[in-house]
Amino acid sequence: MPIRYDARTYALRAAKGYVSLASVAGRLKVPFALDPHTQGILGQAVGFDSADMIHRKGRFWLHIVVTIPDVEFQPSGDVVGVDMGLSRPAVCSHNRFFGKRRWKEIERRYFRLRRSLQRKGTRSAKRHLRKLAGKVNRFRRDCDHVLSRRIVDSVQPGTVIVVENLVDIRTRTKQRGRESRRRLHSWSFARLRSFLAYKAAAKGCKVVGVDPRHTSQMCSRCGHVHRRNRRSQSRFLCRACGFELNADLNAARNIARKYLASGGMPAAGGPLSTGLACQPAQAG
Ligand SMILES: [Zn+2]
């Protein structure tokens, strides 16, 4: 279990390279190391909140909650669609692929292990299950941080980042292939989106959602929709115009296009809002 500190029990002296922590033996001055990215964030921080001390694999980590001012969103006209892909965890309409293929393999391995532990049902199996749940959760969280960071780093300030509103996708049973395709990463979607939203806001970008229907079956060149346009998990081939593309990239382009078609022109004070409040979808 992490130890929680607050403003009275810890004080960060980033410039001097140590943190002062209250302990049963009085105040401790603990030196720490920072990576350049964290250093940058601390430099912008205008407020410090609670901090959690975590011990993991022989190292101590201090997770600090800081407040950094958002950069005002000034639309540049750039719109980037993000598809939570099959071939890669995230594929963006500006031709960038993020995340590692092996993440999904790790996820499948966890899934199989969990299932076999559940079948056993013994007390020690239950203990293992609890440990495993914590491990899986940390792994997913790390993936979400990496993905959202990479995506935001790849765009310029003023960009609208468009994602699918996937909250209700699981209630739909029709699109079977897509349904199972989603299952592997549906776990992370709300969290990934919230990570994306605050990282985007700190860079002067914003995140909006669109209706996910047909994004994987529509041709991003001619707009033709057909179930068999998507030939396989990785290949899109349009039956009407012959356009061929990586299937996730085609979907990402459709996601960006939907936002533009919905009239969500990236104007200040436009109809679409940032953050987790999803805008219900106007199909384009
Ligand atoms: Zn086409």
UniProtKB/TrEMBL annotation:
UniProt keyword annotations, A-Z: DNA recombination, DNA-binding, Transposition
Extent of the signal sequence: none
The family this protein is said to belong to: In the N-terminal section; belongs to the transposase 2 family.
Pfam families in the record: Cas12f1-like_TNB (PF07282), OrfB_IS605 (PF01385)
Keyword flag DNA-binding: yes
The keyword DNA-binding is assigned to this record: yes
Example GO BP: transposition
Residue ranges constituting the Cas12f1-like TNB domain according to the UniProt record: 189-255
Name the UniProt record assigns to this protein: Transposase, IS605 OrfB family, central region
Domain Probable transposase IS891/IS1136/IS1341, residue spans: 63-158
Matches recorded under InterPro entries: Cas12f1-like_TNB, RNA-guided_DNA_endo/Transpos, Transposase
GO MF term set: DNA binding
